[in-house]
Write a structure and sequence with these properties.
Layout lengths: L4 E5 L4 H12 L6 E6 L13 H4 L4 E5 L5 H10 L4 E4 L6 H6 L1 H20 L6 E6 L24 H20 L3 E5 L1
Length: 184
């Protein structure tokens, strides 16, 4: 599968910015990255500030909120997005306990907006949803989680990520949208 225009959400965060840097260095990736980030507490534009100069024509930064579906539709159309790597999320359990509404909005509504926009995009190739292992609950001093571990979210954060995981799966099952999910 050859990706031409990859939308990366949350690409100014630690993981997203490192993913973008890694991908642009790969000789077999010759496409373009469109980085959409709201630049909340977790996003730092300095993480990717020089990429536009290093990779002219292959890197675009757009400061935007994934909860604004009309803007997402416009970005998909203008930049001919054919794949998404979705890192953007409200995170941290303590923050979710204080302001759960932010987590519901970004992690559930924002993911829904992206899935809907991807579904309406002709020739769409892949939607990769980056989740968390916290959707599986608490791990004791030993053991590990697998893809077979039942979901047991214990905070508004993990519940909102579990919800977005289920939406991603449902869009694959119901609409045939090509979706993958990773729980890091």
């Amino acid at each position: 599968m050859k990706l031409e225009n990859l939308l990366v959400t949350g690409g100014c965060g630690f993981i997203g910015s490192n993913f973008i840097r890694y991908l642009l260095k790969q000789p077999d990736f010759t496409g373009r990255i469109i980085n959409v980030d709201k630049l909340t507490y977790a996003g730092n534009p300095e993480n990717i500030s020089e990429l536009k100069e290093i990779y002219p024509g292959r890197y675009v930064f757009i400061r935007e909120d994934i909860c604004r579906i009309e803007r997402m539709r416009e970005i998909f159309l203008v930049h001919e997005v054919d794949a998404v790597c979705h890192f953007a999320a409200e995170s941290h359990v303590d923050r979710s306990i204080k302001r759960p509404e932010n987590f519901i909005e970004t992690n559930i509504i924002g993911t829904f907006n992206l899935l809907e926009t991807a579904r309406a995009t002709s020739g769409f190739a892949l939607f990769h949803h980056v989740s968390t292992d916290e959707v599986y609950g608490s791990l004791g001093p030993e053991g590990d989680f697998t893809e077979e571990t039942p979901y047991r979210p214990n905070s508004p954060y993990s519940a909102s990520k579990a919800s977005s995981d289920h939406l991603a799966r449902a869009y694959h099952q119901t609409y045939g949208l090509p979706v993958t999910v990773s729980n890091c």
